[in-house]
Design brief:
Layout (H helix, E strand, L loop, with lengths): L4 E4 L3 E5 L8 E4 L2 E6 L7 E3 L2 E4 L2 E2 L2 H42 L2 H6 L1
Parallel strand pairs: 1-3, 2-4, 3-5, 4-6
Antiparallel strand pairs: 6-7
Length: 109
C-alpha cells in the first residue's frame, strides 16, 4: 500500500499481521478499525472514530487524553512545589532553632 489512499464513506476495518503503509492515507467519514499484530502500521488515518489494536485514537479522544495528562502533570508539579516549600520551611525552622541555642547545648546534643 505504499503511497496509496483508501477512501470510504462507511467503516473501514483492516485485520493483518503486517501492514506496509508508508505514506499511505486511510480516510473514512465514519470509522477506521485496524488490528495489526506486528504493530508496524505507519500510515496516516483520517476519521472521526479510529481504533488501532483496540486503543481509541479518535481525534477527540486523543485531545481529551492529552488534556488529562497535562492536568495530571500540573497537579504533580503543584504537589512537588508544595512539598519543596514545606521542606524549606522545616529547614529554616530547624536552622533558627539551632542558631538560638548556645554552643554548649549544641555540643551535648
Amino acid at each position: 500500500m505504499k503511497n496509496s489512499k483508501i477512501v470510504s464513506e462507511g467503516d473501514i476495518s483492516i485485520n493483518a499481521n503486517r501492514i506496509q503503509a508508508k505514506d499511505c492515507l486511510i480516510q473514512s467519514k465514519s470509522a477506521v478499525m485496524i488490528e495489526n499484530k506486528c504493530l508496524n502500521f505507519d500510515g496516516k488515518v483520517e476519521a472521526p472514530i479510529y481504533f488501532y489494536n483496540n486503543d481509541d485514537l479518535s481525534p477527540k479522544v486523543v485531545v481529551e487524553k492529552n488534556n488529562a495528562r497535562k492536568d495530571f502533570v500540573n497537579v504533580l508539579r503543584q504537589i512537588r512545589d508544595s512539598l519543596n516549600q514545606q521542606n524549606q520551611e522545616k529547614i529554616l525552622s530547624f536552622q533558627r532553632e539551632l542558631e538560638s541555642q548556645k554552643v554548649g547545648k549544641l555540643l551535648i546534643k
